[in-house]
Amino acid sequence: MRPTIRDIRPGDGEGCARAWADAGRYYSALVPEVIQVPEEDGLAEWFEAAIREVRTADELWRVAEIPPHGVVGIIEAAILRPAPDAHRQIQRDLSRTRLVVNLLAVTEDYRRRGVGTALMEAAEEWGRAGGAVVAVTDTNLSSPLSVPFYEERMGYRRQAVLLRKTLERG
Questions:
Q1: Helices (H), 8-106
Q2: pLDDT digits over 111-120, tens only?
Q3: Which structural domain range is residue 41 located in?
Q4: CATH number of the structural domain spanning residue 119
Q5: How many distinct structural domains can be found in the chain?
Q6: Which 3 state secondary structure label does DSSP give 51?
Q7: Is 158 contained in some domain?
Q8: Where is the N-acetyltransferase domain positioned along the sequence (predicted)?
Q9: I need a labelling partner for 86 at 20 to 30 A (CA). Which of 45, 56, 97, 109 fits?
């Protein structure tokens, strides 16, 4: 069953919290030194407060809903306009209107069932309508789930490498 993709609204906090906590459990098992499971006590209320915040026309929050289960996925994205100093930058994308997907989370029970694809397609369509000509996101390279999703299903290509080092005190 294809989910209904719609704008986020008050009352969606519990489903968003469920998807976010599931994502935390998944990624923390892969890279516990980088990812943690969010504290679940008060997480739905935290999302409810975020849902009520005023957004600009260049900010998107959508959810995937499947009755009777409710919200089973969430996406947050933004359109970034060209940088004022783009002509001085070496990265071409800074001169382009970009869709940046900051968050995509799907509850464990609905992964690999088209929910993430539907959310990404909705965000990309919204981005195109807002003038975006390129889309970017990031994920953890250790993930056997999300890397193939973005590269094989959604057509994204690796563009950069984020390097990390834990600094020891000494």
A1: 13-30, 43-52
A2: 999 999 999 9
A3: 4-153
A4: 3.40.630.30
A5: 1
A6: helix
A7: no
A8: 3-170
A9: 56
